[in-house]
Structure formats: structure tokens, C-alpha cells
């Protein structure tokens, strides 16, 4: 039985949705977007404004929101799991990956 | 279409101000305390504290110089008293001369030439007394929206920013552009990951190319330092609010820019040469961005926040728009408008946009913002070189 917790999915190409309420673990939520509908069991507490997976995401796969890439999965992510800094990395501005020289001017 | 008007002040260089300040402009850190004392003595004057103006060279010198001049020439300022020390690299005299080209009243007071701190404060206060009275004799007149340069900014973003307040500001941005006004989009750092969307809206290839150039330059600064840009942006508060990566934050930030063509890409603190949507190259740092836009001539700023911030400018009203209702309730004395109703589903994006536009006109006609009432006089220059 789906709960009344509100969610929003921005684009049908996305693999994550955003919680518009604090959603307790074990809740079943309905996510709808542009004709698509998902019933998802929330695996862990998802706070207001935070994201959860609407389909399984493999390590190394892109995370999509607004129909655009917002980063890459650093671990496998199951449906209903919290998607945040513990399992997603940004792909841009990654000086730590390109240049390990840590002086102020990069010299 | 109805012609909406604002009530402002025509300046001698033709620009229109929405405030009538006398600015005590300290061009060197050493004069900031004296300048602040003048504002405590004389009603109607404003100033700000900063740490710049000496031992700066090259492009960094020029950018700071341009910012000081831009603050003085902003049409919200009736007249300026430049306060210097006397021996600094950013000479008060050169800055005063540059501001004077706008035709507004400008005077120079230097601590070393006017008998030290007390003498300089007394001299500046004496001049300011007359300038404030002259300013107060001006009466507001009606002007068209096309006279406005509106800065847009988001600070203390959360996951609602890209869903409520930023798209609402985007709606207003389109309204202003369609009525012949100018809107500044800025914070280059927070457009990393969304640059392709804006480059596609550029009026020509030259502007599109510059979009990729400024993004690359900003990204290179993080790469040069050998860091993940996420250690600084998104900030800890952004992350707590649910923003995971800079790309995610950028896609939400870009919603402020509405849907109209991108006319030009200008340098920090530079005045737009085109009407319509303009991108100013600034960092994501709230105060440095705000200062750049105001120095570029913005008379009003629309500022969205999810976490809540007090940010304001000494010379330009900053209208603060909350992305969510709980923060709006918690920080009522800092926030002017609530866009959280979009999240709750009780109000449409267009309806919030209309409210923001109405508030913009009222504010441009004299209504005070919360940041002005609380005297939140923030100022900070984007430094692009070391101090020597």
C-alpha cells in the first residue's frame, strides 16, 4: 500500500527522485514522471530534499537528474536506497584525480 | 501589454538609480574604519569594511580598481566621498577621477593629508553633511523597466532551489528581458555541468565559445590545486540540504537564467553593453559575486536561498527568496518572499514569479528589503592574484 509521502522526479530519463517529505525506512512511495510510474520501497530514511534510486544503478553508471548527468555511482545502488555523497562522485572540477600536486598555484 | 513602471532617480550619465545613497568609499583597508565612523556621524551615508587596495599588481590590481569605480558609479549612489590613506597602490585620487567622469559629485579625503584619522573623519563628515542634504532634495520620477539591470544569485542552496525559487526567478528573468531590461546571470563555478545548456542559447558562436572558456578556466583552478572542487562547493550546508555534486547544484542554479538568448559574457565588475540576459564571470562565493554584479551596475538583486542567508549590499537592495517554507518561517527577518509554496503544491511557479516581479517593482520604487533594514552591508572583491 503506497504511503502519502511526496516525491518529485524531474525527467523520465532520470534514475533518481527527490523526497519532498522526510520519508521513513520501509515506506512505499509512488513516483510519477511524464507518464512513467514507479512503486518504490524506501530502504533507509530519506530526508526532505534528498534523493533515492528509482531503478538499480551499477557502480560506474551515470546518475541523472533534470535529464542531465549530475555525477557517477561510486558503488552499486539498489532501488529505494539513499543516493548522496557516500555513493556518488562528481565528475567535474576533480583536481584530486588529475593533479596530486597540492600547492596553491599548482607549481 | 501593460507598461509597468518604477520610481527612481535619473543620474547625469543617463542611468537610473533606485536608491539615493551617499557612499563613503574606502579604497584601502587602512581607511575602512574611518569611513565607518563617518557613516555613524552622518545620516544617509553608507560604507563597507574590506581588506583590499594595497600591494596588488597587474590584472588583480585592475579588477579591484574596476570594482571600486563600479561601486561609485552605480546609479543607486548620488555622490561619493573617496577615503584613502595616501601611500597605497590603489590611489584614491585615480579612483575619484574615474568616478567623476559619470558627472556625479565626488570628493577625496586622505588620512595622511587631512591630519590623521580624526581630521579625515571630520573633513569627510563635513562634506557628507552637504552631500546628503543635496541628495535628499531629489524627487523620484517614473521610469520604464528597461532601465533596470537586475542581478540574480543563489546562496545557501538546497535541493529545493532548482525546484522552486530558481525557476521562479527564471520566470521573472524572462519577464524583465521581454520588457527590454537586463538580467545578470553569474557564479561561473555554479554553472559547471550546465554550461552546454547556456552555450546552446548564446546569440552567436563567439559568445558560446566564451562560455566554454570561462568554465574551463574556473575548473582548471581546482585542477591546479589538486583538489576535488566538492571540498568547497557544494558546501557542507548544500550537502546537508540534499545536493550531492557541483553538477547537480549547477543545473538547479541555471534555472535562474530563464529561457531567453544569452547576449554576452562579461568580465567581473564590468558593465553590460547589451540588454537582455548577460553572464558575468564571477566565482560562486556569495559576497564576491554580489559585489561584482553591483559594481557592474545592477540596481536590484534577486537572491534565492534554501538554507537561509543574511546577505545584502551597502548600495543595492537584495530581495531574498526562500526555496522552502520551514526556512522562510525560521528566518522571517532575513527573507522577503517565500517560494516554498511551489514545493507544497499550493501555488504555481508562475504565480510566485508574478509576486517576485511585483516585489521587484516596489523595491525599485523605494520599499526597503530585510537586508537593508538590518544594515547588512556586505562587500568582497574576487581577487585574481596574490598580495605582494
UniProtKB/TrEMBL annotation, chain A:
Record has Oxidoreductase as a keyword: no
TM region positions: none
One of the record's GO molecular function terms: lyase activity
Residue span, SAF domain: 14-89
Lyase as UniProt keyword: yes
Record-linked SMART domains: SAF
GO terms under biological process: D-galacturonate catabolic process
Classification via InterPro entries: SAF, SAF_UxaA/GarD, UxaA_altronate/galactarate_dh
Keywords from the UniProt entry: Lyase
Pfam families (alphabetical): SAF (PF08666)
Protein name as annotated: Altronate dehydratase small subunit
Source species of the chain: Paranoxybacillus vitaminiphilus
Lineage: Bacteria, Bacillati, Bacillota, Bacilli, Bacillales
From TrEMBL, chain B:
Superkingdom of origin organism: Bacteria
InterPro entries listed in its UniProt record: GD_AH_C, GD_AH_second, UxaA_altronate/galactarate_dh
Domain D-galactarate/Altronate dehydratase C-terminal residue range list: 145-386
Domain annotation D-galactarate/Altronate dehydratase second: ranges: 8-135
GO terms of molecular function: lyase activity
Pfam families found in the cross-reference section: GD_AH_C, GD_AH_second
Entry coiled-coil feature ranges: none
GO biological process: one example: D-galacturonate catabolic process
Lyase is among the record's keywords: yes
Record key words, sorted: Lyase
Record-annotated membrane-spanning stretches: none
Similarity annotation: Belongs to the UxaA family.
Protein name per UniProt: Altronate dehydratase large subunit
Organism encoding this protein: Paranoxybacillus vitaminiphilus
Amino acid at each position: 500500500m503506497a504511503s502519502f509521502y511526496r516525491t518529485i522526479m524531474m525527467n523520465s530519463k532520470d534514475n533518481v527522485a527527490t523526497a519532498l517529505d522526510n520519508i521513513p525506512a520501509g515506506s512505499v512511495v509512488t513516483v510519477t514522471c511524464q507518464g512513467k510510474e514507479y512503486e518504490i520501497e524506501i530502504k533507509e530514511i530519506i530526508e526532505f530534499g534528498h534523493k533515492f534510486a528509482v531503478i538499480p544503478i551499477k557502480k560506474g553508471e551515470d546518475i541523472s537528474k533534470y535529464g542531465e548527468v549530475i555525477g557517477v555511482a561510486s558503488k552499486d545502488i539498489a532501488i529505494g536506497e539513499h543516493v548522496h555523497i557516500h555513493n556518488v562522485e562528481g565528475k567535474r572540477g576533480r583536481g584530486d584525480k588529475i593533479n596530486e600536486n597540492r600547492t596553491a598555484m599548482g607549481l | 501589454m501593460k507598461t509597468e513602471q518604477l520610481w527612481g532617480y535619473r543620474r547625469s550619465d543617463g542611468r537610473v538609480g533606485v536608491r539615493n545613497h551617499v557612499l563613503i568609499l574606502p579604497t584601502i583597508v587602512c581607511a575602512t574604519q574611518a569611513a565607518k565612523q563617518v557613516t555613524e556621524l552622518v545620516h544617509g551615508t553608507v560604507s563597507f569594511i574590506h581588506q583590499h587596495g594595497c600591494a596588488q599588481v597587474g590584472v588583480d590590481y585592475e579588477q579591484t580598481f574596476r570594482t571600486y569605480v563600479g561601486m561609485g558609479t552605480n546609479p543607486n549612489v548620488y555622490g561619493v566621498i573617496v577615503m584613502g590613506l595616501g601611500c597605497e597602490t590603489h590611489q584614491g585620487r585615480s579612483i575619484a577621477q574615474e568616478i567623476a567622469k559619470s558627472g556625479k559629485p565626488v570628493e577625496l579625503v586622505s588620512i595622511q593629508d587631512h591630519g590623521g584619522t580624526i581630521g579625515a573623519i571630520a573633513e569627510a563628515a563635513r562634506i557628507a553633511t552637504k552631500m546628503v542634504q543635496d541628495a535628499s532634495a531629489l524627487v523620484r520620477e517614473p521610469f520604464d523597466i528597461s532601465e533596470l539591470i537586475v542581478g540574480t544569485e543563489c546562496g545557501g542552496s538546497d535541493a529545493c532551489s532548482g525546484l522552486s525559487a530558481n525557476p521562479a526567478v527564471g520566470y521573472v528573468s524572462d519577464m524583465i528581458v521581454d520588457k527590454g531590461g537586463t538580467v545578470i546571470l553569474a557564479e561561473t563555478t555554479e554553472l559547471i555541468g550546465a554550461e552546454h545548456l547556456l552555450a546552446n542559447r548564446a546569440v552567436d558562436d563567439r559568445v558560446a565559445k566564451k562560455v566554454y572558456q570561462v568554465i574551463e578556466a574556473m575548473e582548471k583552478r581546482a585542477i591546479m590545486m589538486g583538489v576535488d572542487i566538492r571540498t568547497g562547493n557544494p558546501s557542507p550546508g548544500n550537502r546537508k540540504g540534499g545536493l550531492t555534486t557541483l553538477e547537480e547544484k549547477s543545473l538547479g542554479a541555471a534555472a535562474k537564467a530563464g529561457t531567453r538568448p544569452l547576449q554576452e559574457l562579461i568580465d567581473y565588475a564590468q558593465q553590460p553593453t547589451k540588454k537582455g540576459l548577460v553572464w558575468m564571470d564571477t566565482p560562486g562565493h556569495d559576497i564576491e559575486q554580489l559585489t561584482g554584479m553591483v559594481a557592474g551596475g545592477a540596481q536590484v538583486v534577486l537572491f534565492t536561498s534554501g538554507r537561509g542567508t543574511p546577505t545584502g549590499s551597502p548600495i543595492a537592495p537584495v530581495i531574498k527568496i526562500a526555496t522552502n517554507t520551514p526556512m522562510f518561517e525560521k528566518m522571517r527577518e532575513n527573507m522577503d518572499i517565500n517560494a516554498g509554496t511551489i514545493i507544497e503544491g499550493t501555488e504555481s511557479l508562475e504565480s510566485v514569479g508574478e509576486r517576485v516581479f511585483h516585489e521587484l517593482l516596489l523595491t525599485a520604487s523605494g520599499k526597503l528589503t530585510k537586508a537593508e533594514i538590518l544594515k547588512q552591508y556586505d562587500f568582497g572583491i574576487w581577487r585574481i592574484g596574490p598580495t605582494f
